[in-house]
Design a protein that fits this description.
The structure is a single chain. This protein has helices at about 20-35, 50-60, 65-90, 100-110, 115-130, 150-160, 170-185, 200-210, and strands spanning about 10-15, 40-45, 95-100, 140-145, 190-195. It is of the alpha/beta class. It has one domain (about 10-210): Rossmann fold (3-Layer(aba) Sandwich). The chain has a five-stranded parallel β-sheet with strand order 2-3-1-4-5, with helices on both faces. α1 (about 20-35) runs parallel beside α8, α2 runs antiparallel to α3 and α4 packs across α7 (about 170-185). The mean pLDDT is about 95. It binds adenosine-5'-triphosphate and the ligand Cc1cn([C@H]2C[C@H](O)[C@@H](COP(=O)(O)O)O2)c(=O)[nH]c1=O. The ligand Cc1cn([C@H]2C[C@H](O)[C@@H](COP(=O)(O)O)O2)c(=O)[nH]c1=O binds next to α4.
C-alpha cells in the first residue's frame, strides 16, 4: 500500500451531524472488502471504537462540560482508539475506516466552539505522533458537505438530538466552514462530497471512485 509509512490504509468519514456519513459507511466498507479481498477491513468510529472510548462517548454526547474538558476527553478516547485499534490494524496492513477522526475535533471544538487552534494542534501532536516521529493521519478523508439547515431537517425526522445536535445553525455553519477550510488546505487527503445530492447519486460516486491503496 501507499504513502502512509504504516503498511495499512486509513480512511475517515467526516461532516456535520446528519450529513449522511452513517448512511454510506457500512456499504462503503463492504465495497472495499469486495474490491480488495486480500485486505482485512476494520470499521470503527469516534468518539468510541474501544470499550473505554464508548464509555467516554456516552459522557461526551450527553453530559454538559467545560469546552477544554470536552476536547481533552475527545483526545483521550482517540489515544485509546489509536493504541488499541487503529495503529495495530495499520501495522498489520489492514484497511481502517473510521466514522470521524481528528478533523472533527478541529471542526467542532475548534470551529464550532472556539477552542484555540494551538491547543488542538498540541493535542494532535501529543496523541498522534507515531514511533517514527511522523503524525498519524488518515490517507483519505471523505467530507460530506451539507448546509446546516438541510442536515437539521434530515436529523429531526429520525432521532432525538444529542448534546451536539441540539446546537443551533450558527454553530453548525462554523463547524461546516472549518471542515471546508481544512479540506481546502489539504486537497490531496480530502475528497469533498456534495451531500445535498440523493443517496443514490452519492453512492454511485463512491462506487466509481478509484482508490489507490
Ligand atoms: N443524501 C441524502 N438525502 C436525503 N436524506 C439523507 C441523505 N443521506 C442520508 N439521509 C438521511 O438523513 C438522516 C441522517 O443521515 P445519517 O445518519 O447518515 O447522517 P450522519 O452524517 O451519519 O449523522 P451523524 O454524524 O449525526 O451520525 C438519515 O435519516 C438518512 O436516511
Ligand atoms: C470525533 C469527534 C466527534 N465530535 C462530535 C460530532 C458528533 O456530534 C458527535 C458524534 O456523533 P456521531 O453521530 O457519531 O457523528 O461527536 C466532536 O465534537 N469532536 C470530535 O473530535
Amino acid at each position: 500500500m501507499m504513502s502512509n509509512p504504516l503498511p495499512g490504509f486509513f480512511i475517515s468519514f467526516e461532516g456535520i451531524d446528519g450529513a449522511g456519513k452513517s448512511t454510506h459507511i457500512e456499504s462503503f466498507s463492504k465495497l472495499i472488502k469486495s474490491r480488495y479481498p486480500q485486505y482485512e477491513v476494520v470499521l470503527t468510529r469516534e468518539p468510541g471504537g474501544t470499550v473505554l472510548g464508548e464509555q467516554l462517548r456516552s459522557l461526551l454526547l450527553d453530559a454538559p462540560m467545560h469546552l477544554e474538558t470536552e476536547a481533552l476527553l475527545m483526545f483521550a478516547a482517540r489515544r485509546e482508539h489509536i493504541a488499541q485499534v487503529i495503529e495495530p490494524a495499520l501495522l498489520a496492513g489492514k484497511i481502517v475506516i473510521s466514522d470521524r477522526f481528528t478533523d472533527a475535533s478541529f471542526a467542532y471544538q475548534g470551529g464550532g466552539r472556539g477552542l484555540s487552534i494551538d491547543k488542538l494542534n498540541a493535542l494532535e501532536q501529543w496523541v498522534q505522533t507515531r514511533a517514527d516521529g511522523g503524525l498519524l493521519q488518515p490517507n483519505l478523508t471523505f467530507l460530506f458537505d451539507l448546509p446546516g439547515s438541510i442536515a437539521q431537517a434530515r436529523r429531526s425526522k429520525v432521532r432525538l438530538p444529542d448534546k451536539f445536535e441540539k446546537m443551533d445553525l450558527v454553530f453548525f455553519e462554523k463547524v461546516r466552514q472549518e471542515y471546508l477550510r481544512r479540506a481546502k488546505a489539504d486537497p490531496l487527503r480530502f475528497h469533498l462530497i456534495d451531500a445535498t445530492q440523493t443517496p443514490e447519486v452519492i453512492w454511485s460516486g463512491l462506487q466509481q471512485l478509484e482508490i489507490a491503496l
